[in-house]
Write a structure and sequence with these properties.
This protein has four helices and 18 strands. By secondary structure, it is α+β, with helices and mostly antiparallel strands.
């Protein structure tokens, strides 16, 4: 009976974390470029994940479980396997601000943070006091490095079949817009022009496996894939536009109601098991 109680307890704990995830999604319904999270679960089976030991010879009277060993098959619990961001494109909203850019496609902007290079789709950019192009949190936006031989830009990733490697010294890739005037244009490929002068090209990258990206804050992602980013082939930048959150409030409210009902059912199961165990101790023991 105790096994069923712990199963209900694990289910309630898992649904509690699921409720937190859904509530965070709803709180970021209006956050630009926010990517919703979903909670993934798995069933912990003691017979699979426990250490398998050789069956010992019963010492004493043979019991029923010696004839039919469960080997942990009765121990099944629900656990949270983690949360996964859904990288579905959010709706585009026209702002007409010249430093607002929306990424149409699976790409990300490279951003330099105190923890290293991170990736973001949040395109609400601004010029800092020192002239650097930064995001809304003040982190510098990175550009591709110019090719000293040919004069063209160099991608921050390798184009060969080997692993992609980001260029060193991110500080040398900052976009400086000091004394560039107020009229700036950004092309679909991320090229920033001050009237007719090419200032820099924003570093936009894509990833082969988006599931290896982990959130590092609400608007930043950290790459956990050792192969690194690849050159963008399906991403365009739209100036004067911002990407909205991909959270559907109606869908999330439905998920919230379902998760809350499951949580309540687990609590009712716990209460039922508690009453049965009380009867087992107080009534059956008197017989």
């Amino acid at each position: 009976m105790a096994t069923g109680m712990w199963t209900a307890t694990s289910g309630a704990a898992a649904q509690s974390l699921n409720l937190d995830t859904i509530a965070n999604n709803l709180a970021n319904t209006d956050t630009p470029a926010f990517k919703k999270d979903i909670t993934t679960f798995k069933e912990y089976l003691a017979t699979v994940e426990r250490e398998h030991l050789p069956t010992d010879i019963p010492r004493g009277p043979i019991k029923e479980r010696d004839l039919y060993p469960l080997d942990g098959k009765d121990q099944a619990f629900v656990v949270v396997d983690g949360t996964q961001a859904i990288h579905k494109q959010g709706p585009l909203r026209v702002t007409q601000r010249q430093l607002d850019v929306a990424l149409e496609g699976p790409g990300f902007l490279e951003v330099n943070t105190p923890q290293g290079i991170r990736y973001s789709r949040q395109g609400s950019l601004k010029v800092a006091a020192d002239g650097r192009l930064v995001n809304s949190d003040g982190y510098p936006i990175l550009a591709v490095t110019p090719d000293l031989k040919g004069g063209g830009p160099v991608s921050p990733v390798q184009t060969s079949g080997g692993p992609a490697v980001a260029l060193q010294n991110p500080a040398g890739r900052y976009v400086n817009l000091r004394d560039r005037g107020s009229y700036l244009t950004i092309s679909d490929q991320g090229e920033i022009y001050a009237r007719d002068d090419l200032v820099a090209k924003l570093s936009v990258v894509e990833f082969k496996d988006l599931t290896r990206l982990k959130k590092s804050g609400a608007q930043l992602f950290e790459n956990k894939d050792p192969t690194g980013p690849v050159k963008p082939t399906h991403t365009l930048l739209r100036q004067g536009v911002l990407e909205g959150s991909n959270v559907n409030p109606i869908e999330e409210m439905t998920n919230l109601i379902n998760a809350n009902r499951l949580f309540e059912q687990d609590l009712k199961s716990l209460k039922t098991y508690g009453e049965l165990m009380g009867k087992e101790a107080n009534e059956i023991g008197k017989i």
